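Internal QA ticket QA-208
Title: Verify multi-chain structure generation after dependency bump
Assignee: T.L.

Test input:
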Amino acid sequence: MPGLLLPSPVCLTVIWFLSWSLRSSCAQIWTDEVSAVQYGRLDSNVTLACGKSQIGVPVVWRLNHSSALPWHRVTSDGSLVLLLVDQAAQGDYSCYDDRGLLLHSVTLRLGHPPGLLSISCQVPNHTHVRCSWVDSVKTFLPAKYNASFRGNGQEWRPCIVDLARRHCDVDHPAFWQPIHTLRVTETNALGFETTYARFKLHELLKPDPPEAVLAQQLEGYPKRLNVSWSFPSSWPLHDAFPLVFQIRYRPQGSIYWSEIYSEDSSVVIFDALSGHIHQVQVRARDEVNSESQWSEWTPQLLVRPWEVYTTPDPVDGPEEAFDEDYFFPFDTKPETSTEKSHNPVHEDDGSLGLVILLVLFSVVILTTILSLIFVVWMRQRRRHHATKQELTSMVKMKSMPI
Amino acid sequence: MKLLLDSSSSLLFSLLLAQLPVFTSASPVPPRRPTDMDKLSNQTKNLMKLTQELLREHAFDSDVEPHRFRSLPEMSNRSANDLQNLELKPTLSQLHSDLKLYEHHFEWLNRVSKKHHHPAVPKLVEMIREMKSLINLLHRQMQRVEAPRLTPATPSLPPHLPYQFDVLQSSHELLQHFKLFCDWAYRAFMSLKPKVSAVQ
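Actual output:
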């Protein structure tokens, strides 16, 4: 029994081990609390409480394990008041009692509450609206966004937010409304702010540029170029959504563009400058709504019209493929900007028709004139014949004996 | 013989004369005659152009929506997807009813503008005339495809506009709505065109 009452070395070891493990587990609890984050406003005073430290008990504060602290004071209850904090005041703060025991630890993050957002919307077609935003105030803090969208007098409907890219999408909006409103609420640890933005979707409508643009020479035609393209893939292919295309071209080196408008997907340029590389670009706009916007121009294509006795150059491709210092050897007179509203292939048909019509008309006129001449001649002949008959009868009468 | 020669030459001449207009009007590629749906869409586009001119010349650009007109045709339930799946008869009937409603609104605006001696009156008169012509054209098309005529909704119009500013604001609101309606109607006519050909 006395053996049980007296502290043996084994017992002491067990007690020490228990107390050590208890202390380390206690420290672990505090360490876990380091993950606690406190948010504060920049340029203001921020108070960090030292857990449940008692009033009057002196505490020691450390920032990132260093005793160097920003401008501060410590209150009687051990709280640390950081004065007019700046970004440098951010970090892991910990307070210890006078025996060096960790009492509390906290991570301080500083920033601003959300301000109003600067919002813009893109409308690539009638079925989709994407609105994106940027902060007018840099908050330095993580934020969440909640966005809704509506037309005049309609219910709010969600605009699906992509947090990383700071934009939201609305599919199938009620497009034919004069004004739409987007409401975005930004929330961070320091507060929230709601921004309202009003838009006229019909004025923001801007198709993506045409795709698969091809500029090709036409064999046997040194002044012609064939340009073709396809509708932007984001644009609905339906009779209800026609597009008008603008094609511009110029000989490389010239500063003047010539223009053609078309509602088809290809045009033939008839007035290319023989033997010269031409720059060609295409853009698109909604054909019905003249208040909508033109798409961006497609990248420049370079093409040289067909030439006799020459091997065609590689014509399609980015401009970089050609010599930047290409010299345009002629005096570049201002070309008049021409507007051709339809496919020139049809114009070809039209001119052929006109020629046939003119030929037919001349034949008719010629036939008419000939017939008239014939008729007049016939009448004169008849008259002459009658006169002759009269004279004959007169002579006969005269020769008759009375 | 003489008589024969005389008459044959006259006959030839007459035949040639008769053929002249035929030749002159003949074209190797005869132009396609515009269909009724073409006429409807063209007339709608014309109205849209007039509306835009009126907005440009006489209204003012304002983001403030006064909501004076509570009985304008409802556009909030019309999306781009609907345009791709329109049914012929109900759509023609609906468009006719919508146009009649707009006609009432514009006639009211015209009366009010006349009272205030607004300079837009001549163009408004022209617009109402064009609108009536479109309504008649549409009605004929409806009769052709046997589309029913809907009972037009009763317009609820603002009772009194004391100031020129109110007239301007109302004008702006009405024109803005009508411009978008024309945009939709034009697309609807374009969309219905193949369906009319299938019916007729």
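Spot checks passed. Helices of chain A lie at 2-5, 9-33, 201-204, 344-399.
Status: verified.
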